[in-house]
Amino acid sequence: MTTTTKSGSAGFSAEEKAAMKQRARELKASSKKADMLAACEEAIAGMPEHDRVLAQKIHEIVTATAPALDPKTYYGMPAYANADGKVVCFFQPSEKFGTRYCTLGFESPAQLDDGAVWPTHFALLEIGAAEEERLTALVARAAG
């Protein structure tokens, strides 16, 4: 596992700089749905095995539950966007920033509002039947 290290007290880590460069490449890349899907699948394929297994499961859940969301990448991570191109949810592998778990994150277009406070990121260690059911419900709700 890689650890995130800061160069100085106020600078960006090497991992953060790499993510920003990846995002700049994404913004310049093709916006064709097939190309974005290929980039998403390539991002998943390049992950270490544990992260890849979880990312593939999330990809299956999102594409089956919310087919209107388009797969793409977001800072080099698999993501799923609405018709306006806004990211609704994304998968962050544990190796991205050297964390001990992967996450499924939701951006502001997600329809997860629940009163005045609600979670926007969920830690993932494994996905069994119960977790799949919960994640499917979250994705369906997020997609509107």
Written account of the structure:
- This protein is an alpha+beta fold and 144 residues long.
- The protein has one domain (14-143): Alpha-Beta Complex (Aspartate Aminotransferase, domain 1), CATH 3.90.1150.
- Helices cover 42% and strands 17% of the residues.
- It is built from four helices and five strands.
- The protein has helices spanning 14-28, 33-45, 49-65, 129-143; strands at 70-74, 77-81, 87-92, 102-106, 121-124.
- It has a five-stranded antiparallel β-sheet with strand order 1-2-3-4-5.
- A hairpin with a 2-residue loop joins strand 1 (70-74) and strand 2.
- The model has no long low-confidence stretch (mean pLDDT 90).
- Residues 14-26 have a biased composition (Basic and acidic residues).
- This is DUF1801 domain-containing protein.
- Residues 1-10 have a biased composition (Polar residues).
- Residues 1-26 are annotated as: Disordered.
- It comes from Schumannella soli.
